[in-house]
Amino acid sequence: MKAFMSRGTIHFLESLEKKHTNIDFYFIASNDGGIAYYENSSKNIFSSGQSFDVLKSVGELSKEGYVVMNHLPISEDSSSTFEYRMKHSDSGIEEMEGFQAWRFLRQEKTSKYVVLTQWRSFSDFENWKNSDQFKKAHDTQKAKQPSYFMERPFVISGHMHEKDE
């Protein structure tokens, strides 16, 4: 499966739904603006956006909730180890109150990854961050960090955008 993501104003991104009625878009409102996200097996409809391979998928995305996307550049020599650990990890996240979905994405033709989690609410995400399961899940991640970052890891978070009817 593939995933596709693009940034822009929510108004512009929502206009894509009128042109592409066969795509189930998810719109995220963050401090940086809007993000449109969708998953399927067809090609990217965004003229400027990112394409990802979905390496692992847990749960179902919802049109409501709170989303956190950890963008992680991993060194080429560590990417296979990092992928293996992420695909085979048992963090217990799906047992947490308010958990909705988790995606492990690799940007096509790069060793840049996105770990996307979706929660019913911000407080459910905070409960996850303060849980023993979170500490255990993040304690074992020992993928080698690149000696030089062309790009720093970063986090984007926001709420699912509720469309004006």
TrEMBL record:
Pfam families: ABM. It comes from the Bacteria. One of its GO terms (molecular function) is monooxygenase activity. Residues 66-160 form the ABM domain. InterPro entries: ABM_dom, Dimeric_a/b-barrel, Heme-degrading_MO. This is Antibiotic biosynthesis monooxygenase. Keywords: Monooxygenase, Oxidoreductase. Gene3D superfamilies: 3.30.70.100. It comes from Oceanobacillus jeddahense.
